[in-house]
Design brief:
Helices cover about 85% and strands about 0% of the residues. It is mostly helical.
Length: about 170
């Protein structure tokens, strides 16, 4: 169960790493912070992050169920609730950590234009349709995943000796 939770959090971390890992030069101006918050509201930033995790969670929880076949239904439910609760708090922190990053990267003019666009009906329509596009694309991505994983393994093993690593494993 800990491995699955760690995998879930690793997935969330990888999604948010560019945001969290960005070095800050100086504190952003109040104007930029306000513009970023306005932008995040317009694009439903926190909901977007939540939706990403919600899409990943069932697969992660299924993997936990598979790797922990003796887990009871009540334990599984408790684990699911714990993941949900922790993720909610984590995403709030990611959102707050993202504000100075966006303020650092984008100019006042860019942020203003982004706000203006995403607050329009067409900007809101695009944001409303983005999850549908993602959902429709997901089966294609999942179908490509075995090929991708095989390619990663092949490329990795061309760079390091994978057969030696297998031989090192205890039986």
């Amino acid at each position: 169960m800990r491995k699955t939770f760690a995998a879930l959090m690793t997935g969330v971390f990888l999604v948010s790493t560019p945001v969290i890992g960005h070095a800050q030069e100086a504190a952003p101006s109040a104007e930029k912070v306000a513009l970023v918050k306005r932008y995040f509201t317009a694009i439903h930033f926190e909901q977007m992050m939540t939706d990403i995790v919600k899409q990943m969670t069932p697969a992660m929880m299924a993997q936990m169920r598979k790797s922990q076949p003796n887990i009871t239904d009540s334990e599984f439910q408790a684990a699911t609730e714990a993941v949900s609760e922790s993720t909610t708090e984590f995403l709030k922190k990611v959102t707050e950590a993202s504000i100075p990053v966006y303020a650092d990267i984008f100019t006042v003019e860019e942020l203003t234009k982004m706000d203006e666009f995403y607050e329009t009906p067409i900007g809101q329509s695009i944001m409303a349709k983005a999850p549908q596009a993602t959902q429709k694309l997901m089966p294609t991505v999942m179908a490509l995943m075995p090929e991708y994983q095989a390619d990663v393994t092949k490329r990795m093993c061309s760079k390091i000796d994978c057969s030696a690593k297998k031989a090192d494993k205890p039986a």
